[in-house]
Specification:
disordered N terminus; 22 strands; two-stranded antiparallel ribbon; mainly beta; globular; 2 domains; 3 helices; 20-stranded mixed β-sheet
């Protein structure tokens, strides 16, 4: 092979490799993002209007994000079935079908999304108001999370050692094998949390309106609890919970600003395990509270 041919061959190989790398980086459903300083804990933030979020910790330094839009894709070989949809469309839709009779309808379940990293904070943004999308994210174990969902999806997190903030509206929250601290809140859904280890310096709370709050802690955990069921439900515990008989008192004093002085006694069960320690609030309106001892 002549020198000129060798150079040309190497250029072809280089071009192919570059194209392959670009194709991977520009993948519409998967992206790999490194933290600015992988030696320090990072933070990942994500918020969805429609869809759910799954986050898994792994032994790596990069954040791997996969976006999976929901919905049906109609290919160019499919035709609309006027008869099956006739009762479900209005006059305008019917007129549109007549106008485009015989033509093939092309739809896409693609939803725009982006990932941005700045100063060890990765922010995932999507156009989830246009349709449902599920995020599947892999992060280094020591990553902290701030996640929020509204409709049609759950938040599921496992094997994380950082600080977790998870909020949902119509969906549950499940945190499995986590170490650190957690604040979880939803409106319609259960909250299930299992700790391998807790951060004793962080106050934690798990609150839902309609659903159970189910928390598993290591047997040696030292904690002080506020357990409250506003409407209907029961409290169960594997731990020997030392319950305080004194009701919780809240004082509101607004007399200095022309208001009133008010004392409220809350319907809250206060107790401790292993002598007490970190404050943990477990609360629901309709549902049970279950405090489990890890085996």
């Amino acid at each position: 092979m002549t020198t000129m041919k060798k150079v040309f061959f190497l250029l072809l190989v280089l071009a192919a490799a570059t194209a392959a790398l670009w194709s991977q980086a520009a993948s519409p459903d998967r992206v790999v993002v490194p933290f600015s300083d992988p030696g320090k804990p990072g933070l990942v933030k994500a918020s969805l209007i429609n869809g759910g979020i799954i986050v898994k910790g792994y032994d790596g330094k990069e954040v791997i994000v996969e976006a999976k839009p929901r919905g049906r894709v109609i290919t160019a070989g499919d035709k609309e079935d006027d008869e099956t949809e006739e009762d479900e469309i209005d006059d305008d839709e019917d007129a549109r079908k007549v106008k485009h009779a015989g033509m093939r309808r092309l739809t896409s379940n693609s939803i725009g999304w982006s990932v941005e990293e700045d100063n060890n904070v990765i922010k995932i943004e999507t156009s989830s108001w246009k349709g449902s999308i599920d995020l599947v994210v892999q992060v280094p174990w020591a990553t902290s999370l701030r996640l929020h969902c509204v409709n049609g999806g759950n938040i599921t997190i496992e094997n994380i050692r950082g600080e977790i903030e998870a909020e949902n509206v119509n969906g549950g929250i499940t945190l499995s094998r986590i170490s650190g601290s957690a604040v979880a809140q939803t409106v319609n859904g259960d909250i299930r949390v299992s700790f391998n280890k807790i951060d004793p310096g962080k106050a934690m709370s798990m609150v839902t309106l309609n659903g159970d709050v189910d928390v598993t802690l290591p047997a040696e955990t030292k904690a002080t609890f506020k357990l409250k069921i506003d409407h209907q439900g029961e409290i169960y515990s594997d731990f020997d919970l030392a319950v305080k008989s004194t009701p919780q008192k809240a004082v509101e004093d607004k007399r200095a600003h022309g208001g009133r002085y008010r004392v409220t006694f809350e319907n809250t069960v206060s107790g401790s395990i292993n002598g007490g320690g970190q404050e943990i609030t477990l609360k629901t309106f309709n549902g049970d509270i279950l405090l489990r001892k890890a085996k």
